[in-house]
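Ticket closed. Logging final result for C-terminal binding protein.
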Amino acid sequence: MATVVTSDAAVIHPETIQSVLGDEVTIERATISAEDDIIDAATDATALIVGVDDQVTATVFDHCEQLQIVASAGVGVDNIDVEAAADHDITVVNVPEYCTEEVSTHAVSLLLAGVRRLGVYDRAVERGQWNWQDGRPIHRLSEQTVGFLSFGKLAKRTAEKLAGFDCELVAADPYVDSEEMADYGVEKVAMDELLNHADHVSVHAPLTEDTRHLFDRDAFAKMSDMGVLVNVGRGPIVDEAALRWALENDEIGAACVDVLESESPEESPLAERDDVIMTPHAAFYSEESVTDLNEHLARDIQAVFDGEEPEGLITPA
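Final structure:
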């Protein structure tokens, strides 16, 4: 009988996975916060499902000789040593279409909240104030430009949703050509032009050595002094100390972020600012997205058990 070991990450629902795989597969849930935990839990496992923070190293593959597949409960696989998995003939999968609707909706929501100064208004009302002027100045979104850092599937869906607001859209992404962007009503620009031309910037990029702290003091100094920075990508793309400096010195107008450099809000220099809206890395979430995630993972595991190619197959770069 095949055994599937799952992380105890909140998005992983063993009952949904079991309903797809059937009773002939045993599912075991484990806390696997360290390498040794994974090895202990998955020594005899046929499949392993991990959260995006669970690190699956080459050492894990050395010890878990029965493994056929490691499945990431998300889009990213930077927590899995994909090359080592391939060396051990172990399949790695992700869920490439996971939460596209949710993240794009969240990005638009954060942008609108920043443009309309909802955080400022909400906190002013909490203090007993009732004055529309607390949010001044606010400008009409349809006469402004929104820029995207990276133009993958999440940014593309966000652009589709912003189309109805009649604002100009631009994007900086060296891996997407101008013709593909034009299909979404978006103009391709260089990074400097994005910062200088866009009124607001929505970050959708992955974290790499090139994007880490890409938004520093120099970047913020180039942005519109009423600009809204939205980050639904990765927290360390933004230097939070530089962002606080930019807000304090009116280099930008507001920040609306779903991710932080270190996801402990009490440690963030952005905490308790009226011009910052934070959500707790929640952009991925809806009941439907979590169900889709688990069903997709289970189907890919079944495909590997059946000797078929899974939909979310990841190959070494």
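Residues 52 and 302 are 21 Å apart (CA to CA). No further action required.
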